[in-house]
Structures are given as C-alpha cells and as structure tokens.
Design brief:
The complex is a heterodimer of chains A (99) and B (631). Chain A has 99 residues and is an all-alpha fold. Chain A is built from 3 helices and no strands. Among the domains of chain B are: 275-539, no CATH class; 559-630, no CATH class. The chains are: A mainly alpha (99), B mainly alpha (631). Chain A: The chain crosses the membrane at residues 6-23, 28-48, 60-83.
Chain lengths: 99, 631
C-alpha cells in the first residue's frame, strides 16, 4: 500500500484532535484529543521513517510515547485536583489566571 | 630672604587660626594677639623692603617656589611667591594700614562681645590679601582673591543680628561672584592660550597671542576688577557694605581690598597693552564710575555711604589711569597708596565721630563737632584736604598726575577722559566739603533718641586717635615724598614700564585747572551748606538728587533687569519643563500603559484561546516556511 495514505490518516487524526482541543470543554476529552494529536504525529514519524528508510522517526516515536506517558500522569493529576476543588471538569471554568 | 615672603602670609593666617579656633580662653587677649601678628607681618614687610632697597632696580624682584601644588601631566600649578616693587608697595600698604586699623579696632570694638572673632576675621583678611599680592601665578592670586571676598563677606555681616547687615553681606558676596566668574574664565583662557598661568611666562609671551584672545582675557579681567573694586556695572554692593563695622569699611572697603582690581589690571599690564579695545573699555568704566560715585556721594546723608561713594569714585580714577596703559600704571598705584592713607583716615574719623555720637550716621544730626572732637576734626580735616587735592597734600600730587595722564592719552578720547577727571575733581571737592561742613561746622543738630538718650560727643580713646594721626601724616606727606625726584615713578618703572605720552595741554595748565575746579567745588558747597543752616530733615531735592540718594537707581535697575528678568526666565523654563518635557515623558508612559492594557486583554484565562494562538502561530510558521522554500 502507498505509504502516503498513512500520512493522510495522520493528518486526519491530527485535525480531529486539534478540533477537539479547541471545541470541547470537558478536560478529560480535551486531554484525550491531545493524546490523539500526539499519536497522529507518531504515525507520521513512523511513516516517514519507512519512506526514507532510516530509523530516526521510529526512535522519536518511542520518545514521544515516553513523554506522553509522563504527561498523562501529570495531566490527570492536575485534572483530578481541579475537579476536587471546583466540582467540575470544564476547562472554561478554570479561567482564573488572567488580568 | 625669599623664605620671609611666605612668613608674611603665614603670620596673620596663624592669627586667624588661633583666634577662630582658640575658643573663649582667648577672649581677653585675642585682640592683642591679632594686632601683634598684623604688626609682625608689617615688620617682615619692612625688613623685605629694606633688603629690596639694597639692590638695583632690575634685581629687586624676589621669586621663590614653595611647593608643587597640582602636578598633573601638562598642568602644573605651583605655590610660589613673587615680590617685586609692585607687590612690595601693596605689602607695605596692606600691613601698615592693616596694623593701624587693628590698633584702632581695639578701641572701637572694645565693648563688642564677639571681639575675638572680629580680629580673627581681620587677620584672615590680611592673610588673603597678602597672598593675593605676593602670588606668582594667577591661580594662587585667585585663591587670595576668593579669600578676601570671604573675609569681606564675614566682616560686612559681622553684626548679623541686623537683617540689613546680613543682606548686605550676601549682596556683596553675590555681586563679587559675578566678577570672580570672569576671573576664573580668564585664567582658563590663559591656560589654553599660554599653557601656563604663572605671571612670568604669561606676561612675557602676551604679545605672541592674537589680539582677539588678549582682548577676551583682558575684558574678563576687567569684569573681575569691576566686581572686586565696585566699578560700574558691578558697583551696587559697596554702599550696602557700609553695614559692617567702620574699621572694616576703612581697611577692606576703602584702603585695600577694593583696590585689588587696580592691582589685577596693573599686574596684567602687558595683556592690556596688547588689547586696545579692552583698554578703551577700562577707561570707560573708570570714567563712568568716577562720576557715578561722586554724584552718589553728593546726595548721601549717611556719612559712611557718602564716603563709600567717594571710594567708588577714587577707584574710578585708578581704573581710568590703569586703562591708559604705560602712561598711567604708575599713577594708578600712586593714587592707590595715597588714597589708602587718606580714605582709611577719613573712615576712621567717621568711625570716631560715630563712636562719640551713639552710632548715629546721619550727618544731618551732627554739626559743630569740631569743638568736641579736636583730634578727629584735625585728622579728618587733613584727610579731607588730601582727597580734594589741596595743593601740597597727597591727593593733589596723585590725582593731578592722573588728570594729566588722561589728557596725554591724546585725541578726542584724551579730552573726554581728562574732562571727566576734572569734573570728577570738582564734584569731589563739593561732596567732601559738604561732609566736612555738615559734620564739624555749623550749629549742633543732634537730639535725644527715642529713649531720651542724648549723645554726649567726646573724643575717642588713644588706641583710636593714634592710628588716625599716623594716617593723617600719610595723607599730608605721602604724595609729596613720592613726587620728590619722581621717586615713586623710578621705583615702579622696572615692573610696570612708563611712557610720557604727548599731552595737548601743559602740566602747569592741568594743575591750574585742577586748583580752579577745586575752588569752584568748595565754594559751591560752602554757599549751599556753610552759609545757611543745614535742615535736620533732608529736603525733597531735585530729580537728580533723589536718584542719587537711591544710588542712581542701580538697585532698581538690577531689580527690574536682573531679578525680574531672572524670575521671568525661570517661570518660562518651568512652564516649558511642565508642558514639554513632562508632556513627552508622561505621554510616552500613558501610551505604553494603554497599549499594555489592551495587550493584557488577550490573556483571558481560557485554555482554548491560547491553543488557538498556538495553532495560528504554528500555521503561520508553516506557511512562511513553505513560501520561503518556494522562493
């Protein structure tokens, strides 16, 4: 199969993720959309790795997964704390850090 | 011998330090310590004088460098002394008259609580004045110049509990400062032009500098001289300076300090010789001031202020003579010395009169005092005859020479200057006769003061009369002694140079004219004040009289032009500061503040809006990269 199709898929996934981040209010969903964008990037990396015939892309995909795992831990902890203190998981409610 | 020159300055300086730092321990003996150290300085002066007489004309000058003061690269300022005939003349005058006035002050200030401080200041003045005349460079001269200014300030304001004295002191200081700025700029100009400010090199190479530069330096020196010597236009302080104790008026504001300007011009002779335009300015200042001071002197009822006007006028003569160049330098200094005698004598006489009259200064409250104060009357009278130029007395010889020299200037200038000097001589005779008649002749006019204390005129104590007698001797004989064989001319010629000039009128004619105007002046005063009783309150008088009573409106002029002008200038500057400078600064601050307020709105706390800007930024970057690659 033509590897370019994978790139289309990656683009599509990234777009869905970005749209979700911008549109949805539930922190968990926003978070999942961020994960979706990360994985779309991973897919693109791996595809490019295949297309160019070297392993750099694959390695970066591993890095991304590790960083994403760490990010998930911190992110979920933040969401938990916000939910506990404000009884809501809406990102729009947590808009106090402004002038 | 050279080492003695330094001692000349150090002796009174030591006195000043002792008296000002010694504390109350010296209250009892302080005035004698001060007098003794002044006398010591005089003795040193006499020893140096005797030593100088032992040598020939050209070898008489002594020179010594004490230490290097400011050695910085090409800038070399030394503390060095130079004692030539010109300095010697001043040293003898300053220490001689200074010692006499110290002695006089012992009597005059007897009952003053702050007597010790007074003598400290007097000694400080002597030290500064001596430094001024024995300095071998302009920078050290400037130190002395400022020193005498300080001493003058302290002594004018000595009775600072009187607001008028405190104000007068400030006025003298500030007006002098204008002149001092001139001197300091002149010194800087000299340094850039000649690379040094030692008298020797500067005056020797003065001819090599361009006339423009010489004129600039000379005019600045003239400004300095105007400030210190109370010449038009910086004359306004001298009348008010009479607020100081009378010995101070005699020593500082008549005999010595105010003549420093004449010294400066004579000392800088070769600079002025190379700048005819500046010399014209000098003679103009001299001629204007000699008439100005004389006119003011005619209208004053305060005996000291009348004498102050006279001082201004007589120094005008000296400045006029000094401005004439080599024709006049010697006579300027000669008149300076004789004036030092008779004007100090007159002031001491005035002080003696005030001493016996409960410090009354209004001449309309005197009258008939010759019976009560015979010694004061005789000494004052001799001083009077000397100043009006009575034939045979000091003032006659010196003033006559100046008038001759003014005519010898030649051309229209010579006629104008000579005419002004002659007219000044007539007015001098008039106002001095007026002072004499109002004080010592006629009916007694004094009355009890507000508390009912009538003055009991009495002769002053011995410490006061002795100096007056000595100065009277000087007033009578000094001029004659100087003129025997042209002794003074020969004495000073090696330093100042001398040329005779071509007078369009013979010396005899000038002398005759001087005597005639003298008689006219005296007669006029006699008709006005001698024949009929002097009214106890001043009549309204003519417009000129009223103007002259107000010092010919000099203060009003200064007030309107300088004070008001200054106020308007500051006000407009403040306005510009508030509107323009503050406007720019505040405007910038306000616009920056407004802009940042608007930018802060972007930070609204919504995560999604930050995300949009991130995505937008990323998109812009990508588009830009693609475009760059396409290009």
């Amino acid at each position: 199969m033509n590897p370019v199709n994978y790139l289309y898929l990656a683009a599509l996934l990234f777009t869905i993720g970005a749209a979700g981040v911008l549109i949805r209010r539930n922190a968990i969903v926003v978070f999942m959309c961020v994960e979706l964008m990360l994985n779309a990037c991973n897919l693109a990396f791996v595809t490019f790795s295949r297309m160019h015939g070297n392993l750099d892309g694959q390695i970066i995909a591993f890095f991304t997964m590790v960083v994403a795992a760490a990010e998930v831990v911190v992110g979920l902890a933040i969401i938990m704390t916000i939910f506990r203190s404000r009884h809501s998981a809406s990102v729009d409610d947590a808009s106090l850090l402004k002038l | 011998m050279e080492n003695l020159i330094g001692l000349l300055v150090v002796a009174p300086l030591l006195g000043a330090a002792l008296l000002l730092c010694g504390g109350r321990r010296l209250d009892k003996s302080g005035h004698w310590i001060g007098t003794l150290l002044a006398a010591a300085s005089f003795v040193i002066g006499v020893v140096l004088f005797a030593d100088m007489l032992g040598r020939d004309g050209e070898q008489r000058a002594l020179h010594t460098t004490v230490f290097s003061w400011v050695p910085v690269g090409g800038f070399q300022a030394d503390v060095g002394f130079q004692l030539d005939q010109l300095s010697m003349t001043f040293v003898l005058l300053i220490t001689g008259v200074g010692t006499l006035i110290h002695l006089y002050s012992v009597g005059y200030m007897e009952h003053d609580e702050k007597k010790r401080r007074f003598f400290g200041y007097l000694n400080l003045f002597l030290a500064a004045m001596l430094l001024l005349v024995v300095a071998d460079n302009y920078l050290l001269l400037y130190v002395g110049w400022e020193g005498v200014g300080l001493a003058s300030y302290l002594l004018i304001g000595f009775w600072q509990h009187k607001p008028s004295a405190a104000t007068a002191a400030k006025k003298a200081f500030i007006v002098n400062r204008v002149g001092d700025v001139g001197l300091s700029i002149a010194i800087m100009l000299m340094f850039t032009t000649f690379g040094t400010f030692a008298f020797g090199p500067v005056l020797e190479s003065a001819g090599d500098a361009g006339e423009g530069k010489l004129t600039a330096v000379a005019l600045l020196l003239l400004l300095a001289a105007c400030g210190k010597s109370a010449q038009v236009p910086l004359q306004s302080w001298l009348g008010d300076a009479m607020e100081g104790p009378t010995p101070v008026s005699a020593l500082i504001h008549a005999a010595t300090m105010v003549t420093a300007g004449v010294y400066l011009i004579t000392r800088s002779g070769s600079i002025f010789n190379g700048a005819p335009d500046a010399q014209l300015a000098v003679v103009t200042v001299g001629a204007v001031t000699l008439l100005f001071g004389a006119i003011v002197g005619c209208a004053k009822d305060d005996i000291k202020k009348a004498l102050a006007g006279s001082t201004m006028s007589q120094i005008g003569y000296m400045i006029l003579a000094a401005g004439l160049g080599p024709i006049g330098y010697v006579f300027a200094i000669m008149h300076l010395v004789t004036h030092g005698f008779f004007k100090a004598g007159l002031f001491l006489g005035a002080g003696s009169v005030m001493h016996g009259m409960n410090d009354e200064v209004d001449m309309r409250r005197y009258g008939g005092l010759r019976k009560y104060m015979p010694v004061t009357f005789v000494t004052f009278g001799l001083g009077y005859l000397a100043i009006i130029g009575f034939p045979g007395l000091s003032g006659f010889f010196s003033k006559d020479k100046i008038i001759e020299a003014a005519f010898a200037k030649g051309g229209t200038e010579g006629w104008i200057l000579g005419g002004a000097a002659l007219l000044g001589a007539a007015i001098t005779a008039y106002y001095m006769t007026r002072v004499m008649i109002m004080t010592f002749f006629g009916e007694k006019r004094w009355q009890p003061d507000a508390e009912g204390n009538a003055p009991h005129p009495h002769e002053s104590p011995r410490t006061m009369t002795i100096p007056m007698v000595v100065l009277a001797f000087g007033s009578v004989f000094a001029g004659g002694l100087f003129s025997v064989n042209d002794a003074f001319l020969k004495w000073l010629e090696p330093v100042t140079g001398h040329s005779h000039g071509n007078s369009p009128v013979s010396a005899l004619t000038v002398t005759a004219a001087t005597v005639v105007v003298l008689v006219v002046g005296v007669a006029l005063a006699w008709f006005q004040y001698g024949r009929r009783p002097v009214p106890a309150t001043a009549p309204r008088g003519s417009l000129l009289t009223r103007a002259a009573r107000r010092d010919l409106l000099q203060d009003d002029f200064n007030h309107v032009v300088l004070v008001r002008g200054g106020e308007h200038l500051t006000r407009s500057l403040v306005y510009v500061d508030h509107s323009l400078v503050d406007g720019v600064v505040n405007g910038t601050a306000a616009s920056v503040g407004g802009l940042s307020g608007r930018i802060a709105k972007l930070q609204n706390g919504y995560a999604r809006s930050y995300a949009v800007s991130m995505f937008g930024g990323a998109a812009v970057l990508i588009v830009a990269t693609l475009l760059m690659r396409a290009v």
